[in-house]
Specification:
Elements lengths: L1 H15 L5 H15 L7 H14 L9 H17 L20 E5 L23 E7 L5 E3 L12 E6 L1 H10 L18 H19 L4 H14 L5 H7 L2 H19 L2 H13 L3 H5 L1
Antiparallel strand pairs: 1-4, 2-3, 2-4
Length: about 290
C-alpha cells in the first residue's frame, strides 16, 4: 500500500531532477519493506511473530519491540542498495527519451473558467513564444482545431495541446488556472494545519502508551482511531472507503490457514519429516 501511494510521487520527483524513474522503484519497494520491520504494526509478519511469542512463551511485544533489529536491517539494506545501485535497471519510456522541448502536454480549460469567450491573446495564452508552442485545440464537442492563431477563442471544456519546456507550460497552466495533468504536477510541500498536528499527536500518544505501559496494542490502536475521528482528522465514511477489504481477507485467511495447519498436526508432520531428512546438520535444516 505504501509503495503504491509513493510510486507516482517518486516518478514525478525523479523526472523533476532529470533522473530515470526506474532506478528508484526497486529501492522504494525495499525501503517500504525494511521500514515496516521497525514497528510492530508495520508489517503482518511482525504481528504473527508477536502472537506466536505470546502464545508459546508468554512474551508480550509493544509497538517498539522490533525497533532495534528493524533499524539494523534498514542500515544493512541501505548499505546493500548503495553498493549495488549500479545494477539497478535503467528503463526509459518513450517520454523519457524525448528532449524537454519535444514533449507534449494537454491542458484542459475548466467549464467555469474566466477565460471562456476570450481570444488567446486576451487570455494571455502564447501560441509560440520560443519556449512553448500551442499545436492544437480539441474543442469540447470533439472537433479538432490545428494550428490556432492569436484570435482563436477559448471555450469551456477545450483541451489545449502544448509542446515545449515543462516548466514554462506548467507556468502557463497555473497562470490561466487550467486543470494540471499528472505530467506537470510537482510534489507539493505539505501544509501543517491543526488536524495534521492532532493526527501526529494521537499517533505519538498511541506509540507512547503502547511502549511504556501494559495496555494491549489493539486497545491503543482502537483508541487512536476513535480520537482521529473525534478530532476531525478523518471521517467514518472516509475510514470505511480507505479499507482494502480484499487485502485484509488475504491476511486474515493466511493466519486462519496457518492455525488450521498447526492444529490438525500437518505442520508437525512436515517439520518432523524435514528434520528426519536433514539429520543433525543445522545448516541443512536452516536451508
Amino acid at each position: 500500500l505504501v509503495v503504491s501511494m509513493l510510486t507516482p510521487l517518486v516518478k514525478k520527483w525523479a523526472r523533476r531532477i532529470g533522473a530515470i524513474p526506474s532506478r528508484f522503484l526497486i529501492p522504494l519497494s525495499y525501503a517500504a519493506c525494511m521500514g515496516g520491520l521497525c514497528l510492530l504494526i508495520g508489517t503482518p509478519a511482525n504481528l504473527v511473530i508477536a502472537e506466536t511469542c505470546k502464545s508459546s512463551f508468554g512474551i508480550d511485544f509493544n509497538i517498539l519491540t522490533p525497533l532495534v533489529p528493524g533499524l539494523c536491517v534498514v542500515g544493512l539494506g541501505t548499505l546493500v542498495m548503495v553498493v549495488f545501485n549500479r545494477v539497478l535497471p535503467i528503463r526509459k519510456t518513450a517520454e523519457d527519451g524525448l528532449p524537454d522541448l519535444a514533449r507534449s502536454y494537454e491542458l484542459k480549460v475548466k467549464k467555469d473558467s474566466h477565460l471562456v469567450g476570450m481570444t488567446l491573446t486576451d487570455a494571455d495564452i502564447p501560441t509560440d513564444d520560443g519556449r512553448s508552442r500551442l499545436t492544437g485545440i480539441l474543442r469540447f464537442d470533439g472537433e479538432m482545431e490545428a494550428s490556432p492563431d492569436a484570435e482563436t477563442f477559448v471555450m469551456g471544456g477545450d483541451t489545449l495541446y502544448f509542446t515545449g519546456s515543462r516548466r514554462h507550460v506548467a507556468a502557463i497552466a497555473r497562470r490561466c488556472d487550467f486543470e494540471l495533468p499528472d505530467a506537470l504536477l510537482d510534489v507539493q510541500k505539505v501544509r501543517v494545519g491543526p488536524r495534521m498536528l492532532a493526527a501526529m499527536g494521537v499517533f505519538a500518544a498511541m506509540v507512547g502508551v503502547s511502549s511504556l505501559t501494559s495496555v494491549p496494542l489493539v486497545t491503543c490502536c482502537l483508541g487512536a482511531a476513535f480520537l482521529m475521528i473525534a478530532f476531525g482528522c478523518c471521517t467514518v465514511s472516509a475510514a470505511k472507503k480507505s479499507m482494502n477489504w480484499s487485502l485484509l481477507m488475504v491476511f486474515a485467511g493466511s493466519v486462519v490457514f496457518g492455525k488450521a495447519v498447526d492444529h490438525t498436526g500437518v505442520a508437525e508432520v512436515i517439520a518432523q519429516g524435514l528434520l528426519d531428512s536433514c539429520g543433525s546438520n543445522p545448516l541443512l535444516s536452516l536451508a
